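I am writing to request your help with a piece of structural work I have in hand. The matter concerns a single protein, recorded as an amino acid sequence and a row of backbone structure tokens. Could you please explain, in whatever detail you think fit, how the structure tokens follow from the sequence? Thank you for your consideration; the sequence and its tokens are set out here:
>
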Amino acid sequence: MNLPAPADCRDMSEVRANIDRLDDEIIALLARRVRYVERAAALKPAAGLAARLEDRVSEVLARVEAGARGQGLPVDLAVTLWREIVEWSIAHETRLMADGGPHKA
């Protein structure tokens, strides 16, 4: 996606349009991430893994923190968002694993 630099936006309508485009991209990426979470929920039982793996949670949050620092994103924002994403993902995996997989109702 090619967006102008924020400083190149001439007015609020252009700023808002670009924020909306970024929001659409974020939603699409989150949807893709959920599909991987669902695949993990399908694979973990056979591997003898629980939905919550504390080492993996720590690894993800450390990687997010480092990535935020590298991008100049406020670390507290990134870590707060990812904690929510990770906790939701673990709860979703737990539900799916209890139900036998993503395709069961």
